[in-house]
Amino acid sequence: MKEKSTELFASAPIPKAVFTNMIPAIISMIMVMIYNLADTFFIAQTKDHLMIAAISVSSPAFFFFMAIGSLFGIGGTSLISRSLGAGKGEKAKHISSFCFWTGTAIGIISALLIHFNARSICYMIGADGDTIGYATEYLDILSFAIPLLIIGNTFSNIIRAEGKPQIAMIGTVVGNLINIVLDPILISGLKLDVRGAAIATVLGNVFSAGFYIYHLSSKHSMLSLNPKLYRAGEGIAFGVLAIGIPAALNSLLMTASNIILNSLMSKHNNFAVAGLGVAMKVNSIAVMVLIGMGFGVQPLLGYNFGARNKERFNGIMRFSLLVAFIGSLVMTIICYCAAGPLVRIFLDNEQAFDYGFQFCRILIYAGPVLGIMFIFQNAIQATGAVVPAMILSVCRQGLILIPLYYLSNHFFHTPRALTMCTPIADYSSTAISVILFIYTIRKYFGDAEMVDKIEQEL
């Protein structure tokens, strides 16, 4: 008898299945976005643009460890959903145990390395003499959250693979709400400034990680954290890392591209750096909603790929692309029209505001296709197609965006030209994702022998 939680994947009407998984994922992403905006907003109330710049400079380090969580979260989600679709529930428990204990070990080691080298790392990622003090304070305290951040980011993804999107949402939403509530108390009330923002982040992650651990240790979960079920063999480590590494690489290259962009932008002035940081956070309103759409459908697609249900897989893709396209248009219009008021919330300084407003509108130029790109990207990950997933991960940041930054800086040397690189890379990556998806589906669903091979690996 099928687990009730997976009935949604296998037999529910497609619109119901898609929205039931999409909506909690979107809400989770919105809460992450609100948290990012809240940190910047309350720091902005200090009227110190150097603190805002320091937070912007430190952000890549935060995203680096989210990438580690993505390695186990997205890789684990893909393998677990395909395993459940193939009727291999016991293997799903081995996979979740592997992801938890390996991710936790990496988190503890990373926390120690960051804590004892925070100042040097801040210089490496773009801090200068004006911002190094604030950036170091922020990153040093944030290091204590690294193991929790990895656990939270891992299992906010993996729990969706067992058909529990609401549980995944609760952990993310409440953890971020705790962070948001603590921000004004610690930053303004106790005058802790950037240290307060970092402490709030640590405490929010304590709840999220603790909540997921509680759920996974209960009888209500199909998964397990039991160390006795830890397995790296049987294709588990390879299956998780084969999709997780491209996903993490995408996040790491995004972190690298942000470091490079901050570094190049800082050669102009700190007003441009502050404006860019705020513009990217405002633009994340659209990006997080659209990422949530892609995350939401990945377990659905993975389950039906594992079950070899081609008709349902294709139906989910068609409906998801329609929803993503409409959502992309709506979010683009909102972000473009509201750019001025949204940027003004965070920046009073006129020079910084001018940069932020200009950058915000440039970044949303590719908005209409972002949702489509995220659906195709998650669909490729859902199938476990290693090479296409790796190509897509490397292309946008490593082969397109980062080279564009250097070319733009060399030939134009203006803040506006640097920012224009992002929408150019987004349109290019969307085209590449469509081509890779078509290739993947023709190869895997069109080739019975290939599908049998994947099933054997599961």
UniProtKB/TrEMBL annotation:
- GO molecular function (one): antiporter activity
Predominant place of localization: membrane
**Mind listing the UniProt keywords for this protein, alphabetically?**
Antibiotic resistance, Cell membrane, Membrane, Transmembrane, Transmembrane helix, Transport
Compartmental location: Cell membrane
CDD domains in UniProt: MATE_MepA_like
Q: What's its membrane topology?
A: Multi-pass membrane protein
- What is one GO cellular-component annotation here? plasma membrane
Protein name, as recorded: Multidrug export protein MepA
